[in-house]
Amino acid sequence: MKKKDRQTKQYPRLTHPLVRDSNGTLRRASWDEALRRAADGFRRTQETYGVDSFALLSCARATNEMNYVAQKFTRVVMGTNNVDSCNRTCHAPSVAGLTAAFGSGGGTSSYEEVEHTDLILMWGSNARFAHPIFFHHVLKGIHNGARMYAVDPRRTSTAEWAEGWLGLNVGTDIPLAHAIGREIIHAGLVNRAFVERATSGFEEYAALVEPWTLSAAEQVTGVPAAAIRELAHAYATAERAQLCWTLGITEHHNGTDNVRALINLCLLTGQVGRYGAGVQPLRGQNNVQGGGDMGAIPNRLPGFQDILDPVARGKFERTWDTVIQPRYGMTLTEMFEAMESRELRAVYCIGENPAQSEADSEQAIRRLASLDHLVVQDIFLTKTAEMADVVLPATAAWAETEGTTTNSERRVQRVRAALLPPGEAREDIDILCAMAEQLGHDWKFEDSEAVWNELRALSPDHYGMTYDRLEEHQGLQWPCPDPDILPSTFLHARLWETDPAARGTAAAFGLVEHDPPVDLTDDQYPLRLTTGRRLDSYNTGVQSGSFASPLRRGEYIELCPEDAVAYGVEVGEEVRVSSRRGSVTAPVWVDPALRPGLAFMTMHFPDEVDTNQLTIEANCPIAGTAEFKASAIRIEKLVPAWT
After folding, report:
1. What are φ and ψ of residue 404, in 5° steps?
2. What is the arithmetic mean of pLDDT over 17-32?
3. Which of 86, 103, 128, 219 gives 20 to 30 Å between its CA and that of 20?
4. Mean pLDDT, residues 442-468
5. Cα(139)–Cα(143) distance, rounded to whole angstroms?
6. How far apart are CA 277 and CA 220, in angstroms?
7. Are 257 and 250 in contact (CB under 8 A)?
8. Three-state secondary structure of 380-435
9. Mean pLDDT over residues 481-489, rounded?
10. Taking Cα atoms as reference points, which of 642, 618, 621 lies closest to residue 630?
11. CB 256 within 8 A of CB 99
């Protein structure tokens, strides 16, 4: 199909509730009928199969207040900790790695610090396309004299701004990080005072990285030894350095280990806990940080408080007048596995589109179809909503809702309603409270500020953030425990304290080993497919696909010039792309930023080219994130229909 014949699917805005009729079609319904049908299905499922047969998917694009109420609904009304969001799909390894090292799952620096640092290391991040607002801060930093290095299998638009580009083989981040660490140690560039005072596990780490010489790393990563050495010395000798990563690090079967390997470098050099020196996982959605902060994850209550901590749990139980299960719930990954085993029977999906965003999408759709009861609350009739038993129309969080969101630098900011919602669409919190009422809980919140104040009373890190202060200061960063003191822009200054009591728990080196991608290339599947984003589109395209862009060209299988010649294909030619899980057809695009053996696609146009039919559900055992970045594929020329 030629480009001009390919049209992005337009998803209609939901303006009234829908229920599935006896003939299998979705029809318009009143709010009373839709809420009753939804609640009856949840109640019936739990009465038959137990409380853990239910799960809720919360929304990384909705407000903090909505995510707070959603996790409270799950734990209080439904009696389970089975709540998660698309944080699991992208940055759960960042949270797990940062928490393991520092005890806190947020990036350590503010955006402003990137403008005033001396070195910026972008690792697995095409921020110019995926995080363009953050990249403006990067450009200011470069303009102010910062050196930038890019580590990425592709020579991306971001890498074009770098002083040095290290084009590593997909899935070899740990060997590269270990080689950098070994070079820093052997060159005598370790910040010994910081390591001895503020960290633990250095000797074990030094022994772990010892085999990763520059030449050994070059053989595995494909990065020249001289380039590895240059980056090691530049990073270690910079007075202040910012290490930033995105999904090129996290979306691997060992994503948490990848994050730990990068954090090791900042511990080795003392590049953390100071203004301008730190680590930054760049979040792609407006509130993916806030959703986790609000407890819309299976192992933490709001304010990062561990469910297994009886003191923390008791505080919430007294406030909510309930009993919280003293065990972790299912992650998003485990939920889909539980659909397969029929342990999970009912799902309440708010603002997520897992039918198109999950790896191995055909398997994901089959699992969703196996549910006894699926309720979707969204602003569009997504592919997932088309499968639902009940569809509830919600407001758009960024334009039709009051509340707050939290960005990658831990900054909580006010969101204000600018538009009235269309038709019968209702605010997410109102819908959740109405659903709770159907299930016997009389919840009343006067407004979003009332929800926020309940959260503040339970989360010390948010207590100092009143709505008035957030407006006055145009946002505040957590932790902010005191309503009279402005919080620091960066985390972990404690690590530089000389008093052990003030310094607190040491930051631990992560002892992680190289583990290649699960989906190995071979003669049958010789190409390595990695996935990512483009500047003109957003996630599965449900929102961005409705708007024209002069940059948008639809979905392609991108190859380097050498591979295009080897396969005898030209730009625009349709080919079959196959992995061990499925096949799609896509036109070819030739990109000199790629190297031989490496292909690239996005997930932005699943109705046109469903890239996630190709990706593999090989999950990080710690964080549950799938290996979207490393699939083995082959391409085949199509036989013309007239032959």
Report:
1. -140, 160
2. 96
3. 86
4. 97
5. 6
6. 29
7. no
8. ECCCCHHHCCEEEEECCCCCCCCEEEECCCCEEEEECCCCCCCCCCECHHHHHHHH
9. 95
10. 618
11. no
DSSP state at residue 440? T
77 DSSP 8-state letter: I
Where residue 201 falls (left for φ over 0; alpha for ψ -120 to 50; beta otherwise) is: left
Q: Which pLDDT score is estimated for 550?
A: 81
Q: Given a cut of 50, is residue 1 above it in pLDDT?
A: no
Checking if the pLDDT of 2 tops 70, the result is: no
DSSP 584: E
How buried is residue 237: exposed, middle or buried, by Cβ count under 10 Å (0-12/13-18/19+)? middle
Residue type (1 letter), 216: A
Mean pLDDT of 590-602: 96
pLDDT at 89: 74
Cβ-in-10-Å burial (0-12, 13-18, 19+) of 343 comes to: middle
Helices (H), 159-282: 173-186, 192-198, 202-209, 214-221, 225-237, 247-250, 255-269
Q: Tokens 């939804």, residue?
A: 38
Is the predicted pLDDT of residue 546 greater than 90, yes or no? no
CA-based end-to-end distance of the chain:
17
pLDDT band at 7 (very low <50, low <70, confident <90, very high): low
Among residues 3, 68, 78, the alpha carbon closest in space to that of 375 is found at 78
Two tokens at 425? 């669409």
Is the bond into 302 cis (omega within 30 degrees of 0)? no
Q: How far is Cα 499 from Cα 79, in angstroms, rounded to an integer?
A: 44
Q: Give the integer Cα–Cα distance in Å for 633 and 525.
A: 5
From CA 451, how far away is CA 460, in angstroms rounded? 15
Q: How far apart are CA 377 and CA 10, in angstroms?
A: 18
DSSP characters for 106-154? S-SS-HHHHTT-SEEEEES--HHHH-HHHHHHHHHHHHTT-EEEEE-SS
Q: Which two tokens stand for residue 302?
A: 């709001």
| C-alpha–C-alpha distance, residues 457 and 377, integer Å | 28
Secondary structure (3-state) at 578:
strand
DSSP 450-493: HHHHHHHHH-GGGTT--HHHHHHTT-EESP---TTSPPPSSS-G
Average pLDDT, the chain: 94
pLDDT at 5 over 50: no
Count Cβ atoms within 10 A of the Cβ of residue 499 and give its class: 0-12 exposed, 13-18 middle, 19 or more buried. exposed
State the pLDDT confidence band at 4, using cuts at 50, 70 and 90.
very low
Identify whether the C-beta of residue 265 lies closer than 8 Å to the C-beta of residue 173.
Answer: no
- Give pLDDT tens digits for 346-369: 999 999 999 888 888 899 999 999
The residue ranking higher by pLDDT, 236 or 1, is 236
